[in-house]
Amino acid sequence: MAVRIGVGRETAVGERRVALTPETCGKLVKAGAQIAVAPGLGASAGFIDQAYVDAGATLTDTPFADAGMVLCVQAPSPDAIATLKPGAVLVGMLQPEADPVRASALQDRGIVAFPLEKLPRTTRAQAMDILSSQASMAGYKAVLIAAQLTPRFFPMLTTAAGTIRPSKVLIIGAGVAGLQAIATAKRLGAQVEGFDVRPETREQIESLGGRFLDLGVSAAGEGGYARQLTDEERAEQQRRLAEHLRNVDVIVCTAAVPGRPAPKIITAAMVDGMKPGSVIVDLAAETGGNCELTQPGRTIEHHGVVIDGPLNLASMGATHASEMFARNVFNFASLMIKDGALAMDWNDELLAKTVWPPRPQSTGETP
Predict the structure, then answer these.
(1) Collapsing DSSP states into helix, strand and coil, what is residue 356?
(2) Is 246 a catalytic site residue?
(3) Which of 54, 66, 104, 126 is labelled catalytic?
(4) What are the structural domain ranges in the chain?
(5) Is position 148 annotated as part of the catalytic site?
(6) Residue closest to 10 by CA, chosen among 74, 58, 53
(7) What's the pLDDT tens digit per position in 220-275?
(8) 23: closest CA among 340, 318, 329, 313?
């Protein structure tokens, strides 16, 4: 029996992205699935209802009714979860452990949840990696915000009034968001540096035209992530960084440690030592911020230094962010759809390691 896939409008404040685009809708229909979407689903991301209908979807005010699979960007509210079909599959950025009420609602309904933020970061999983695809948009938007907030030009300009030197931009963290930020700042003509405690990122930073800022402290960890620094390492890093920041015009912070609060890299004392007119854009604001003074969701000024703590930056580029997110979701959902029907192979590590609550692997396929 063909699986019915339901997609409702996102309800999180400020969320403009969608988990299903007309493109991926058409692909799921070709795979044999039936698609039900709420009217106005993609309006905030630039996708009209007729495009979904043309792709084979049905418009309905109750897209979750009888849906064997539900796709979302952010998790539905507990009340919405209570309306899902018992045992339905839910795919999206769910963060069940962050909200006990949501977790309880999922368990009470017997929902087979796949929080894609838990997806193993393997080569095979790259096409399903929502963290990477959305971080790319966030890094891009962060630099544009910084360029808007700074009272300086990014590029060097030669004018009749004299030569304007390029802005000095420092990107902290060289993950996906940081590398995109480096590339964007470089395209805008800035003098760009990249800093990461993982020494293996030097080549990536330099390949994008940035200069690797070496502070003599390494925190290479497992799986491409940074480990937490010791107290001594952190003190030495901060001393050297504080000296360097005195001549930086713009900082974009992107450093994160999975499952933990963002590491505090820029102290209030460091900000005090920066030039008036300097700008800090802190992508890590959602998990506390890399700057000690960051206020999530607010733009403040501290002794002449502007500090911005944007939230859900990827949503600011809703059209392209949705296209990437929806392709990630489609690639993952395809692992569970065979001949149009729902079928899960728990021997597939991507399913087994992403599902919540975790379950032991079983043999064979379970429809």
Answers:
(1) strand
(2) no
(3) 126
(4) 4-129+317-366, 150-311
(5) no
(6) 74
(7) 655 555 667 788 887 888 899 999 999 999 999 999 877 789 989 999 999 999 99
(8) 329
Asked about 129 being catalytic, the answer comes back as yes
pTM: 0.90
Query: Would you call 214 exposed, middle or buried from its count of C-beta atoms within 10 A (0-12, 13-18, 19+)?
Result: exposed
CA distance linking residue 322 with residue 148, whole number of Å: 24
Choosing among 3.40.50.720, 3.30.200.20, 2.120.10.10, 3.40.50.620, the CATH entry for 150-311 is 3.40.50.720
- CA-atom Rg of the chain in angstroms: 22
Region 74-101 average pLDDT: 95
Same fold, 4-129+317-366 and 150-311: yes
Q: Which residue of the set 34, 74, 132, 204 is catalytic?
A: 132
Which ranges constitute the DSSP H helices of 109-213?
A: 130-149, 176-187, 202-207
- Catalytic, 132? Answer yes
Phi-psi bin for 87: left (phi > 0), alpha (psi -120 to 50), beta? left
So what CATH class is 4-129+317-366? alpha beta
Do the beta carbons of residue 310 and residue 145 sit within 8 Å? yes
Place of tokens 């695809």: 133
